[in-house]
Design a protein that fits this description.
By secondary structure, the protein is mainly α. It has one domain: MetI-like (MetI-like fold). Helices cover 76% and strands 0% of the residues. The protein is flat. The model has no long low-confidence stretch (mean pLDDT 89). Part of the binding-protein-dependent transport system for glutamine; probably responsible for the translocation of the substrate across the membrane. Keywords: Amino-acid transport, Cell membrane, Membrane, Transmembrane, Transmembrane helix, Transport. One of its GO terms (molecular function) is transmembrane transporter activity. Belongs to the binding-protein-dependent transport system permease family. HisMQ subfamily.
């Protein structure tokens, strides 16, 4: 067998388009997952037992049910009750919901890591609970959570490969089409492996750099 990836040159544009779609879906899912994760983390650390229970149910469902089952439910199940989304919209929603469950663990750990003395000083100063969380707790929690959140983003990129199961031609979906057209699955999937490795490496590198920058004066 001869290994000749240069024969795939005419298809590099298709693979690049798939990579861009993967990056866009994951970026949107990261934003959605971060919002959901912050809300869930605040609910899990709230005084209300009901809020804590609701958040725990959400986290347990989306952390313990296989992602492909969640994806199929949203794409094939919701239309049965009149809720229809595009393949891209479904992918972003599924990744956001799953990412939010894992993000909530990261943010919750950051919130619990805030020293009680900081909270007591803020309370003595007369700040409201909302102001304390907005201006003190959440910024401190997010600053200490950059590296773990980078890992969540890496996991979103890896998980996004499953979106091809709902006909979304992201990176893996595009690679499948190219492999079928060229009859060169070995070369295609070697290239796919390298593309995912580069994408996740860049995310890890960026997360590390951001962590160092944000914590430069808080070492």
């Amino acid at each position: 067998m001869t290994f000749d990836p240069t024969t795939l040159a005419p298809y590099f544009g298709d693979l690049a388009a798939g990579a861009r779609l993967t990056a866009l879906a994951c970026a949107l899912a990261l934003a959605g997952g971060l919002v959901l994760g912050i809300v869930a983390a605040l609910m899990r650390t709230a005084a209300s037992p009901l809020a804590r229970r609701v958040a725990e149910i959400y986290v347990d469902i989306f952390r313990n049910v296989p992602f492909i089952v969640q994806l199929f439910f949203l794409f094939y199940g919701l239309p049965e009750i009149g809720v229809e989304l595009s393949a891209f919209g479904t992918g972003v929603l599924a990744l956001s919901l799953a990412g939010g469950a894992f993000t909530s663990d990261v943010i919750r750990s950051g919130i619990l890591a805030v020293e009680p003395g900081v909270l007591e000083a803020a309370q003595v100063s007369g700040l409201s609970r909302f102001a304390i969380y907005r201006h003190i707790v959440l910024p401190m929690a997010l600053r200490s959570s950059v590296r773990p959140l980078g890992s969540v983003f890496v996991n979103l990129i890896l998980t996004s490969s499953i979106l091809s199961a709902i006909t979304l031609n992201e990176l893996t979906g595009s690679a499948k089409i190219v492999a079928a057209d060229t009859f060169q699955p070995f070369e295609v999937y070697v290239l796919l492996l390298l593309l995912y490795a580069v994408m996740t490496w860049l995310v890890s590198l960026s997360a590390g750099a951001l962590h160092r920058r944000l914590n430069r004066d808080h070492g």
